[in-house]
Inverse folding.
């Protein structure tokens, strides 16, 4: 399975509007972070986790031409505002694009994009979507997808495990039962916003504790804020732990 980080920024993106800090003004392309989303491919199948604010630009940059399904983590703006651009993919295939999420996420998506779901007849300039509420494991094109419940502040949201890779963004706490779903991973992807405890997200030290506990073969941090300079922070990370950056592709056995 190939995994591409379409975006690796926290909800503000980096650079943050109006900010003149060293990271926001850095010439290092790895310090330019669009909102977080992941693209997975295996055996001709193409799957997205979230459609971030810059989804269209991310897809153009990565050469994404096919979407077989989208898994949604939660319905915050930074994770869903690329939703309307899914219309291209329903037009291409003349089929509904299947999207998956918790009951709360799907209900909120229907509310936020009411104009899309209100259509009684198919409108070629709007996405044509099939929503699927999931609670436990399900199949996408023959591959098992396991939702991993986590807390984003007090909001219950989903991370996902697909094969031996897991993606947990916007996560503050991982319930004990979910830790059990994260054993024997080849790749763990964690959202880490900065250095200090945050009410809604993991911070670096807590994320490193989780890595110690779960012992995945490799770990990538994403959903990164402007507090983290790519090169400086990368040098401090233990072996097998990396800061992701926009456009990075990794292979999961
Ligand atoms: Zn977010
Ligand atoms: Zn800044
Ligand atoms: Zn969020």
């Amino acid at each position: 399975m190939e995994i591409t980080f379409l975006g690796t920024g926290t909800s503000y993106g980096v650079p943050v509007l109006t900010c003149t800090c060293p990271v926001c003004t850095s010439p290092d392309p790895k310090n330019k972070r669009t909102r977080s989303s992941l693209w997975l491919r295996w055996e001709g199948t193409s799957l997205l986790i979230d459609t971030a604010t810059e989804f269209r630009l991310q897809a153009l940059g990565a050469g994404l031409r096919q979407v077989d399904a989208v898994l949604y983590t939660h319905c915050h703006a930074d994770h869903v505002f690329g939703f309307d651009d899914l219309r291209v993919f329903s037009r291409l295939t003349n089929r509904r694009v299947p999207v998956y999420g918790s009951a709360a996420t799907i209900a909120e998506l229907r509310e936020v994009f009411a104009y899309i779901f209100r259509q009684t007849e198919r409108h070629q300039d709007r996405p044509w979507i099939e929503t699927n509420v999931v609670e436990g494991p399900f199949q996408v094109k023959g591959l098992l997808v396991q939702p991993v419940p986590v807390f984003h502040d007090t909001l219950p949201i989903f991370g996902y495990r697909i094969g031996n890779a897991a993606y947990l963004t916007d996560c503050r706490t991982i319930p004990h039962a979910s830790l059990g779903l994260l054993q024997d991973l080849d790749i763990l992807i964690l959202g880490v916003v900065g250095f200090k405890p945050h009410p809604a997200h993991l911070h670096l030290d807590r994320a490193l504790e989780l890595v110690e506990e779960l012992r995945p073969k490799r770990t990538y941090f994403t959903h990164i804020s402007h507090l983290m300079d790519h090169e400086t922070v990368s040098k401090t990370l233990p072996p097998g732990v990396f800061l992701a950056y926009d456009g990075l592709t990794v292979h999961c056995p």
Observations:
- Residues 16, 19, 21, 23-24, 226 surround zinc ion (ligand 2) (CB under 6 Å).
